[in-house]
UniProtKB/TrEMBL annotation:
Keyword Glycoprotein: no
UniProt entry tagged with the keyword Chloroplast: no
Positions of transmembrane segments: 6-31, 283-303, 309-327, 339-363
Domain Glycosyltransferase 2-like: 45-175
Species: Snuella sedimenti
InterPro entries found in the cross-reference section: Glyco_trans_2-like, Glycosyltransf_2, Nucleotide-diphossugar_trans
Protein name: Glycosyltransferase
Amino acid sequence: MTYLDLVYYAFFVVVCIQVIFYVFFFGRFAFLKQKSKPPKSLAISVIVCAKNEARNLETFLPSILSQDYPNFEVVLINDASHDDTLDVMEHFASIHDNIKIVNVKNNEAFWGNKKYALTLGIKASKNDFLLFTDADCKPVSSNWIKKMSAHFSNKKTIVLGYGSYAKIKNSLLNKLIRFETVLTAIQYFSFAKAGIPYMGVGRNLAYSKATFFNANGFINHIKVRSGDDDLFINQVASSRNTAICIDTDSFTESIPKKTFKSWLRQKRRHISTAKHYKLKHKLLLGLFYCSQLLFWGLAIVLFLTNYNWPIICTLFALRLCIQFIVIGISSNKLEEKDLIFLIPFLEIFLIITQLTIFINNLISKPNHWK
């Protein structure tokens, strides 16, 4: 057996793995027809943690305060900001009686730790159901709270939502950021539907206060700078207690990074938490990423050597076709249609970027959240 024979068989196995992921996992989300849930009258506490976010709060807080929902409070957490964040919060609180401010000062044991600030905010909230977003996020509709809270039930105490990024015309970086966001959403929604939820995003996430306190909050990973959203969900989520909400009115939209350097810094923090996931989640995610990397690497070798090209072309086209269908339908659901025709290019770029980030994180640790 020659070297190219081994490459050929490896490529066949990799294509099979990719097809299994796209059809049997990601297809659960792509072909899901989620029925609209009737609204509930649950009292909701919206939690917003802000560190040096004065300008963003001025811009985006009104979209939260104007929600069409009868019973909610907004808990604003000032995490030791050194700009006018607290002043902006106090201004809004003076004209809205459903705002509660939690002013957090640096604690020597938890300096720069968002989880400490969030814990104080959760403890200060008065309602039993919590809905989280970031200071640089806005709900895309006035029905955000209504749509997300509708998925709570006696069994479902965690609701995973979608947090999009605003579109910037003629920006390749923006398309890469949004593609990575879509692919991540497809993964965590699909795994949740498969009964193995592993993460959520703090830009749009809800859970009950009882879920938080029964797990002793963030104590199991309090020393990990990031992960107030994904590590917590990885710890407490199960097939029984987790629901997803993909109604377009439930989406939030955030400000994307505008430079590649700042985005890489952000992704370094996010990716650094993955090593703390449960073993089964690390194995699944690692297998998917490795199969992505090997798919392109082995395909390039086989195409350059012209080895058994009819079969290689068939396998290559099969995987791309399935990927286009699954990601295309999913992107349509998430209102990211403009990404579909750039999928191969964006995927290659993202694979290289993630590999670079992984290597950098091995060399040095990323900084805290702000």
